[in-house]
């Protein structure tokens, strides 16, 4: 429903889209917005070559480009649609940018021009989408004061989902920020299109695993994720040591499964254990853990890569995340969500 001054205009007077079409338009909007956060993924190698960026510079650039848009509450179908659109956009953005960088002129400009064009199309669709709020609240009534915290009564149960979210996002961040460099340096694969395709594989697996495991309990999904992190990390290191593209593809698939189950399961567990009167604070703390997982490990890998080698850095990354996964498994098995 649109508003003009103090009056509300029924959505049907301005909307040419039905309910299903509006859902599709909003899903496209989510996908396009998140595609923007991975456009640079296949371009990092070009930045490194043209501007002389080191591995740590690239990872700091990625860490600064965090713009996650995650709802506070898990709402079954809506969350599945939003999350699938989220990760599909991440994957498609990386693939399209990689293909444009590989086969079209001006690789550092063309992907962003294409992205702006996609934004225009989505904005046009949303202009005809249905409004779901009858009386939108003014900006003055919105509090932007940050609130984060975990009540003492649930801290032991909070450890497992928080660490799971950290690990799941660390896996996604590794592929977004460092996989192109690993492909180029260790596997000698310099195609930007291939770099984009690898991240598309990861994002597609994450989206599919979330959609296909909707009936799986949140705690089971979280524990399966923690168990899958160990073989996924082993495959990732194996791919670098053996310079095997097949191992890299397999590692990407297993990492995607671990990240998808981990994000979906841990978020639901946090929602289950959070007291109603402090839910926003607990969820905010959980997302802080996710953001730290997105940034800190890849920055550490960048520093170690500059001081040693990418293989040594990946080994340290694998051991660190594996240790966190084991700790989370212990807490997850010991403490029930309810």
From TrEMBL:
Stretches assigned to coiled coil: none
Residues making up the signal peptide according to the UniProt record: none
InterPro entries: MFS, MFS_trans_sf, MFS_Transporters
Keywords: Cell membrane, Membrane, Transmembrane, Transmembrane helix, Transport
GO CC, alphabetical: plasma membrane
Pfam families: MFS_1
Record's bilayer topology term: Multi-pass membrane protein
Membrane-spanning parts: 21-45, 51-67, 79-100, 112-129, 158-179, 191-212, 221-239, 245-263, 283-305, 311-333
Record carries keyword Nuclease: no
GO MF annotation list: transmembrane transporter activity
Location within or outside the cell: Cell membrane
Predominant subcellular localization, coarse grouping: membrane
Cell membrane as UniProt keyword: yes
PANTHER family tied to this protein: MAJOR FACILITATOR SUPERFAMILY MFS_1, RESISTANCE PROTEIN MDTM, PUTATIVE-RELATED-RELATED
Protein name: MFS transporter
Species for this entry: Bradyrhizobium betae
């Amino acid at each position: 429903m649109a508003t003009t001054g103090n009056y509300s205009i029924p959505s049907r007077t301005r909307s040419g889209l039905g309910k299903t079409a509006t859902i599709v338009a909003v899903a496209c909007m989510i996908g396009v917005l998140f595609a923007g956060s991975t456009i640079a993924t296949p371009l990092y190698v070009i930045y490194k070559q043209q501007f002389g960026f080191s591995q740590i510079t690239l990872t700091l650039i990625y860490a600064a480009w965090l713009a996650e848009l995650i709802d506070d509450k898990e709402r079954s179908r809506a969350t599945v649609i939003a999350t699938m659109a989220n990760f599909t956009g991440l994957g498609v953005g990386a693939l399209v940018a990689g293909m444009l960088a590989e086969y079209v002129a001006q690789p550092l400009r063309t992907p962003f021009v294409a992205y702006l064009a996609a934004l225009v199309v989505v904005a046009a669709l949303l202009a005809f989408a249905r409004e779901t709020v009858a009386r939108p609240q003014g900006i003055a009534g919105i509090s932007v004061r940050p609130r984060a915290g975990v009540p003492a009564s649930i801290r032991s149960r909070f450890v497992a989902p928080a660490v799971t979210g950290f690990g799941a996002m660390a896996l996604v961040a590794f592929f977004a920020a460092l996989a192109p460099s690993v492909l180029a340096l260790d596997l000698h694969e310099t195609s930007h299109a291939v770099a984009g395709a690898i991240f598309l594989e990861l994002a597609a697996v994450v989206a599919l695993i979330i959609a296909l495991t909707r009936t799986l309990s949140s705690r089971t999904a979280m524990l399966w994720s923690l168990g899958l992190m160990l073989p996924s990390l082993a495959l990732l290191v194996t791919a670098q040591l053996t310079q095997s593209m097949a191992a890299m593809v397999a590692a990407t698939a297993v990492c995607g499964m671990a990240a998808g189950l981990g994000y979906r399961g841990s978020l639901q567990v946090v929602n289950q254990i959070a007291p109603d009167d402090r839910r926003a604070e607990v969820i905010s703390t959980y997302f802080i853990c996710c953001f730290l997982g997105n940034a800190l490990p890849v920055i550490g890998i960048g520093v170690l890569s500059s001081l040693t080698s990418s293989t040594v850095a990946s080994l340290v990354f694998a051991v660190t995340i594996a240790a966190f996964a084991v700790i989370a498994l212990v807490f997850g098995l010991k403490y029930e969500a309810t």
